[in-house]
Description:
By secondary structure, this protein is mostly helical. The protein contains 20 helices and 2 strands. It has helices at residues 2-33, 35-42, 44-56, 58-78, 85-103, 109-112, 115-129, 142-166, 170-196, 201-208, 228-248, 252-271, 276-291, 295-314, 322-328, 336-352, 375-379, 385-419, 423-445, 454-501, and strands at residues 214-215, 218-219. Strands 1-2 form a two-stranded antiparallel ribbon. Strand 1 (214-215) and strand 2 form a beta hairpin. It is globular and about 90 Å long.
Amino acid sequence: MDNNKTVYSRGNGGRAILLFLLFSIAILNFLSSGYSAFVAVMCIPAIALVGYFLFSRKMAMFYTLFIVNTVVMFIERHFHLPVPVSLINELFELMLIGMVLVDHWRFHLSRLINVMFLCAIVWVMFCCIEIFNDQCGLGIDVYRWYTGARLMSMQILYAFVVTTLFIDTPKKIMTLLFIWAVFIVFAAIWLWKQKNIGLTEAESRFLWSSPAHIMGGKIRFFSCFTDAANFGIHTAVASAAFLIIAATMKVTRIRIFFAIVGCIGIWAFFGSGTRTAMFCFIATIMVFIVLCKNKKLILSVSAVFLVFLYILIFTNIGDSNQNIRRMRTAFDKEDASLGVREQNKATLRKYMVDAPWGVGIGLENGDVPPFNKFKLITQVPPDSEYVYIWVRTGVVGLTVFCIINAVMFLGACWIVFFRLKNPSIRGLGIAYTAAFIGMHLGGYANQILLQFPNVLIYYGGLATVYLLPHIENEWNEWEAKLIAEQEERRRLKLEKKRASRV
């Protein structure tokens, strides 16, 4: 017995001492700092185990990042998080990039250097120059600048790099699309819950603190997103992208799945009451019509699309539904809210003439003294991601941002139109490219472009388009295998049916 204890202590004595020290630290923290500190220390072993699991399974960590991006808004609304949600996202991305740099796991440098990467670098470099912008005369504040710059530019670069390094097979692409689709279905289910069962206490507090979510006595529902605009626009663009994938895929079960999710998304975005979502949906479908080479598909989609628009614009069908009535107001040029936004922009133009480089990245209303000339600029609601970038970086920064995004988009269009041969992989590329434009249209009208989970999904999706030429051959093999399995199931089903008739 003593020999067994000796052998155990030699092999595990260090672990026992470490656990004893950890427990002692936890008790000390409990006595000095209270329960929260005690729990934090006791969670260290669990955090270490999770970290080890994720580091040993890198794709699991990547999928975790994707899931965190989609659910973190919902979690933050209902639970207190000790750190900013953007920091959680950034830490995941840096850990993933660090893994690749440490062990060169599936490292494809040639795939990383492309037009989109160069555009993202240009935007990050411009935002780095903005650190010297002291237009308001408040001095250079590195911390404030970094807080704004990592949200405005660095997360775009992170999304591109992480997606490029970890997405290299058709199966991984479809897994990400499936996770995204499940998230859209969950958002639709939660919308139904909010409308028919009621809001949670946290959602009620958010609703009554945000008057813009109540129009004419009706609630603009936001589901599990940050707000109704983000919910409506994201879901509209996603539903259009899923319908494009359903129209171009050759595997039946994949087509049916994404067609169902696309229809669910259409129902959901109407519930948001976000009129811009309708234009984003239209823009996404129009990009598909322009890039699609299949004449039969172009004609059929265009016909359905035109009938949909005709019913919405020129008829009163569905007017009994409040959501449909509100969507119809999107085509009203005399809409009051549109006039307010134009007035806000006109006010900003008068001040922005004296700030061609903007008032500075990271500068918010509370940072500017009351009698500063540019105080009013930070008080006027931007109502748009583009206006927000214009105020912070000026006409120079807005021009750079527009150019780099236009180049990213045109590069993706060139790949889809000229480099991809397989119709289904081209359809996937069109879906992501069209969704990118749909989301930017939403960002022009609402401040949602750089909100969660849009950057990783839409900029990461565009990064996927740049990867598609490298994996097209593998895609052909993967698709041929699924089609063969599909045909085999049909053959067996037909044989079984014939045998039952005998």
